[in-house]
Every structure is written in C-alpha cells, then in structure tokens.
Amino acid sequence: MALGAVAEPPVRRRGSDYAQLSRRISQAGLLERRPGWYVARIVLTLGAFVAGWVAVFLLGDSWWQLPLAAVMAVATTQVAFLGHDAGHRQMFRRRGPSEMVGLFAGNLAVGLSYGWWVDKHNRHHANPNHEDEDPDVGAGALVWTPEQALETRGFGRWLAQRQAFLFFPMLLLESLNLHVASIRAIVGREPDGRYSTPMRRRAVEGLLLVVHTVGYVALLLAVMSPVKALLFAVVHQALWGLYMGCSFAPNHKGMPMPTAEDELDFLRKQVLTSRNVRGGRFVDTALGGLNYQIEHHLFPNMPRANLRRAQPIVRAYCVEQGIPYAETGLIESYRQALGHLHEVGRPLRG
C-alpha cells in the first residue's frame, strides 16, 4: 500500500518537526507520570481479576462456569493491558518497578512472557508496519503483502486466499499462539547455543510461567469436573485471544507499509502507519488506550490517562504540517483491516 502524499507543504521551524511537537506535549505536562491514576487502575483491575477467580472457586462444579469464563477473558485482557503499560514504563520511570509489574501481570497472571513481548513490541514500535523490520507484519498464519501471499504453499496458500473471512475465527487461537511463543522465547536457542530471544530474567520468567500453568490447571480441576474444566479453559483462552486480537487489529492493519526506499522521519513514520479509533470513555477502557495509537506511537511512555488530552495537540500539529491523521470508528477500522487482508490475497484468487 503506497504512502500517501502530504496534503500541504510543511511549516518550517527550527528543530525537527517531532522536536517541536514534543515540546508542546511536554509543556502541557502530558509526559508526567500519573501514580494516583495507576494505583487506582491497578487496584480496580487486579481486584476484578482476583474476584473473578474467587467466583470460579465458589461457583464449583456448575455449567454457569462457562459464562464466567467469558467474564474472565475480559478481566485477563485488562490485566494484559497493565503489562503493556509497564513495558513502556508508563507507570514508573525506573526499570525495576516496571519489570515487577510486567512480570506479575504477564507471566504470573496471564501466562505471557513479559521479556519476549517487550523485545517483540519494541521492534514493532521502532519500525511499525515495515515488512522487513516489524515482527507484527511478518509472514505467518496471516500474510500482509501480495509478495508474502505469493510465497505461500499448500494449506498456507488456501488460508491466504480466505484470510479476511477467517481472521476473527483465527483470533480464537491467538492465546495458544501467545503461550507457545512465550515458551519458545524462554527455551529457544540458536545453532551456536545462544538464546534466540534476549531476556533479562529468563529463570524468573520460566518459573512464573510454570506457577501460572500449574495454578490454573489445579484450580480448575479442584472445583469442577474434567469436562467442565476443559470447556472453561477453551472458552476463557479463546475469548481472551479474540479480545486481544480485536484490541490490536485496528491500530495498523490496512495502513501504509513503508519500505527501505521510503525515507520518513520519526514523526511521519509513526503517524502515517497508525490509525486512531474514535470513541468515549468506554472505548478508552475497552481498548486499553490503544485507540489513541498515533499518540501512543509518538510518545510510548506517556501514561495511558494522558493520551486523550494529547490527541487534540497532535492532531492540530499534523494539520499544520500537512501530515494525514487517520481516525475512524471501531467498526470502520475493522472494515479497513479486513479489506486490506482481502486485497492481499487477490493474486491467489485470480
């Protein structure tokens, strides 16, 4: 997908365009930490998460566990959002406290390797939507460019032809993919013996994943029959993966994909490849602040609560600079993402 041309000649100022914007954001106090807000958010989110598991324990061997599994999928995703914020140091400036929250929210509570996710997500932020640099648009179960589609074979080609229609059903398997990727990141090695994924606290991460898995299985089997336990796990994990995928899909899918030939500065690299999703406080909470994707990519360590206030400043500045600023509703964002997936598979359907 070609990068769009700027609408108007940029306004010339001293310093880089991004530096000018960053100065405005800093002067507005939007890079300051929000400890009170995060304390309240952590207490409410973890409180709901723990209360949900207490309800699972108290409900016992009942088929009502299945709707409760759906509720726990929402609670689990909200905890994962805390891990995301910790990974960007939105809560604390220091690495230590950020890692503690990230390891607790990711490895222990959710069963997702914090170190693996931080490494992968940082590479995404450095080069969003870049086919060769962004791991989120590398060829895999889904393909993101016609070139990737043409390289598929067998079942992968059949999938690529229909990926727009299969996208949401495939998200039901996303939690399994995340769990497997986490384990591979911890134990995977290169042929020369070096670990494939850099990780500061590999042993701790592995131990916390084991504790999470053992505790999860033990709790379910202790309070319900094996059949109900299995069904609870299927519903919980499938809906958690679906919710996670639906939270990240609107952000970049269907937006321009720069190549090595595109010479973009930091400001344009982040804005042109990102899409915001309109909505009120409910959308802010449901998407964990990721609906302000442009602002988040420009200022990754900005506390989530400040993104809403930063949006009008960033949007106005993009208008001044003649930089397209993509913003749409939630349903339309999915339509654009699915439309891109469908178009990518067109060469195979021909």
Commentary on this structure:
There is one protein chain. The chain is mostly helical. The chain is 65% helix and 1% strand. Helix 3 packs antiparallel against helix 4 and helix 11 (226-252) crosses helix 16. The chain is globular. The protein starts with 16 loop residues before the first helix and ends with a helix. Mean pLDDT is 92; it is low at 1-14.
What is the compact description of this entry?
By secondary structure, the protein is an all-alpha fold.
Question: What is the strand and helix layout of this fold?
Answer:
Blueprint: H1 17-27, H2 35-59, H3 65-87, H4 95-110, H5 114-126, H6 146-150, H7 154-161, H8 163-171, H9 174-187, H10 202-223, H11 226-252, H12 266-272, E1 276-277, H13 281-286, H14 293-298, H15 307-321, E2 327-328, H16 330-344, H17 346-349
Question: Which features would summarize this protein structure in a list?
Answer:
65% helix; 350 residues; globular
User: What is the β-strand count?
Assistant: 2
Q: Mind summarizing the main beta sheet?
A: 2 strands, parallel
Write down the Rg: 21 Å
Coarse morphology = globular
Strand content: under 5%
Low-pLDDT residue intervals, each spanning 5 or more residues: 1-14
- What structural class results from the helix and strand content? mainly alpha
Would you list the SSEs in sequence order as H and E?
Answer: HHHHHHHHHHHHEHHHEHH
Query: Helix proportion of residues, in percent?
Result: 55-70%
Q: Describe the strand arrangement of the main beta sheet, using strand numbers.
A: 1-2
Average pLDDT for all residues: 92
Number of helices: 17
How far apart, in Å, are the first and last alpha carbons? 19 Å
